[in-house]
């Protein structure tokens, strides 16, 4: 962290730049209009609006400063530790939404595995930070530190892995509960547990992946995704931004699929006993959770 | 309980000191019985007596908390669950067919066991359960309850089991379908398939079964020939057995 002082200097420099305050002041005109609307329509939200904006401003500036700090990191091991922490919180968040036995552990293992594999692949193959190409061409991002690529892309990968594996898990769980009779019928015919729930696993993966695949299919026609918009606003060439977006989408989908597979296979291990029977205690636990959620 | 070798060899099932529990609830207690399965064996008793649980123990869809179950003198704990389930088929109260055609359903088990079936053999299987040839390619969603239950029966038969367990297979069917299935079970039994059926119907017990296992409150009260059962208890008592909860 030799450049800590540089980063602090940069924060001070940015904050003392009159231009950002002028920009903020101009944006405040919109805030005033918002308050006028609120008074006019008698929503009684004026105080809340003003308070929220100032609070949000301070919070997000603090976050920006922290990001500046993190983005300045060039040591790969340190970045991986930060990613590991993010995986931990992602799995924790999923566990809060889907509080089934051992899900925190299983989802954490799954997210860490897929994020580490994907990020390492991306870094080794130089998909990110910048693909030098077979014919070397210096790019604009040349001077930036590793952190400013690994952390934003890593966070997207983790977020996707978390969200999609959550969707797949919930789908699988409700299908397992719904199809107990069919599963038992398959077992009774001599099917192994994996065979008996093969279709349910397939459906769970489809449920989580299809919306994202559809998003990829309408890229450029219906949506300009966040990453691409951000890069364009930040001054990158739209073509470069578009390629980057597709590369990142591939990374996201792969990570999400892999995380869902690992999480769901580990989850279903609990659904059966070692004698290939439905584990009735586990069945009761996950079906109870469903009921309390409904309340 | 000690079982002599001689007995071990003649009985199809030996149930020794079997107990089954679900959570805190005792479902079956101290079950000791040998079943030879001559003719059709009925499992009767009031609701909650543990009849279905007992049936599921026989093909290892559940395992006892205590005690042992022997099938053809082999401890089922040491046998592969899949092998037992192939030999001992189960037809549940509801048909639980898989999405797809009737043919998909019939071939599910044979595909697991690499049993080859030609379309003609499948048609014969359907005819056994009184369904015509056209049913083979039909989607299962369109079938009536009785037809679905017959497909479910044919699906179990496709595995060529030596024992067939049935858990109230006709409880949600009309009289016509019930008759067809009962006739079929009698015929299958004559062809050498051993049959155990859980039933809550007094009339079905009388019509169909040759011997009975009578359960009450998680205990096996009696193993008795159907004929003797009906002469031992008077009709009011019997009605109570079937009704009480």
Q: What is the strand tally of chain B?
A: 10
Overall average residue pLDDT of chain A: 87
| First-to-last CA distance of chain B | 30 Å
Radius of gyration of chain B: 18 Å
Biggest interface and residues each: A-B, 21 and 28 residues
Please compute the radius of gyration of chain A using only Cα atoms.
Answer: 24 Å
Compute the number of helices of chain A.
Answer: 12
Quaternary state of the chains: heterodimer
Task: List the domain count of chain B as a whole number.
Answer: 1
Number of strands of chain A: 0
Q: How many angstroms does the end-to-end distance of chain A come to?
A: 51 Å
CATH fold label of chain B: Rossmann fold
Question: What is the CATH architecture annotation of chain B?
Answer: 3-Layer(aba) Sandwich
| Overall CATH class of chain B | Alpha Beta
Q: Could you describe the largest sheet of chain B, including whether it forms a barrel?
A: 6 strands, mixed
Instruction: Enumerate the spans of chain A where pLDDT stays under 50 for 5 or more consecutive residues.
Output: 133-138, 290-295
Unreliable spans of chain B are: 1-9
The fourth-level CATH homologous superfamily of chain B is P-loop containing nucleotide triphosphate hydrolases
Strands ordered across the widest β-sheet of chain B: 6-7-8-3-9-10
Structural class by SSE content of chain B: alpha/beta
The major sheet of chain A is characterized as: none
């Amino acid at each position: 962290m030799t450049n800590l002082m540089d980063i602090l200097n940069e924060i001070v420099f940015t904050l003392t730049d009159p231009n950002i305050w002028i920009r903020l002041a101009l944006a405040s005109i919109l805030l005033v209009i918002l308050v006028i609307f609120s008074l006019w329509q008698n929503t009684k939200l004026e105080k809340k609006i003003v308070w929220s904006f100032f609070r949000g401003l301070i919070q997000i500036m603090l976050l920006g400063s922290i990001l500046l700090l993190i983005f300045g990191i060039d040591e790969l091991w340190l970045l991986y530790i930060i990613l590991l922490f993010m995986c931990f919180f992602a799995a924790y968040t999923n566990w809060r939404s889907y509080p089934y036995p051992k899900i925190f552990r299983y989802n954490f293992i799954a997210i860490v595995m897929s994020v580490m594999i994907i990020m390492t692949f991306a870094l080794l193959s130089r998909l990110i930070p910048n693909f030098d190409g077979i014919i070397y061409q210096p790019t604009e991002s040349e001077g930036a530190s590793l952190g400013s690529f690994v952390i934003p892309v890593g966070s997207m990968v983790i977020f996707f892995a978390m969200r999609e594996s959550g969707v797949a898990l919930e789908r699988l769980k409700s299908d397992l509960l719904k199809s107990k009779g069919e599963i038992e019928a398959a077992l009774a015919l001599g099917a192994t547990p994996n065979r008996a729930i093969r279709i349910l696993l397939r459906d769970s993966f489809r449920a989580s992946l299809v919306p994202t695949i559809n998003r990829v299919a309408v890229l450029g026609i219906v949506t300009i995704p966040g990453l691409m918009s951000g890069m364009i606003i930040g001054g990158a060439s739209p073509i470069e931004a578009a390629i980057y977006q597709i590369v990142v989408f591939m990374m996201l989908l792969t990570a999400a699929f892999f995380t869902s597979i690992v999480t769901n296979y580990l989850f279903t291990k609990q659904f059966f006993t070692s004698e290939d029977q439905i584990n009735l205690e586990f069945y009761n636990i996950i079906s109870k959770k469903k009921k309390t959620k409904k309340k | 309980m000690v079982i002599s070798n001689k007995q071990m060899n003649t009985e199809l099932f030996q149930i020794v000191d079997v107990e089954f529990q679900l959570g805190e609830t005792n479902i079956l207690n101290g079950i000791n019985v040998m079943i030879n399965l001559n003719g059709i064996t009925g499992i009767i008793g009031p609701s909650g007596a543990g009849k279905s649980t007992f049936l599921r123990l026989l093909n290892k869809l559940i395992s006892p908390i205590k005690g042992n179950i022997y099938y053809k003198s082999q401890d089922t704990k040491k046998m592969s669950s899949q092998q037992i389930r192939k030999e001992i088929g189960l037809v549940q109260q509801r048909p639980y067919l898989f999405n797809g055609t009737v043919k998909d359903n019939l071939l599910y088990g044979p595909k697991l066991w690499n049993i080859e079936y030609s379309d003609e053999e499948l048609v014969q299987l359907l005819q056994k359960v009184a369904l015509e040839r056209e049913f083979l390619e039909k989607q299962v969603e369109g079938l009536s309850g009785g037809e679905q239950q017959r497909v479910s029966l044919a699906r179990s038969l496709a595995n060529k089991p030596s024992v067939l367990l049935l858990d109230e297979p006709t409880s949600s069917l009309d009289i016509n379908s019930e008759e067809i299935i009962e006739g079929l079970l009698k015929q299958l039994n004559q062809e050498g398939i051993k049959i155990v059926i859980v039933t809550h119907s007094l009339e079905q017990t009388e019509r169909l079964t040759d011997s009975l296992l009578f359960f009450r409150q998680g205990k096996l009260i009696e193993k008795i020939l159907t004929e003797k059962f009906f002469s031992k208890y008077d009709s009011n008592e019997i009605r109570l057995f079937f009704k009480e909860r």
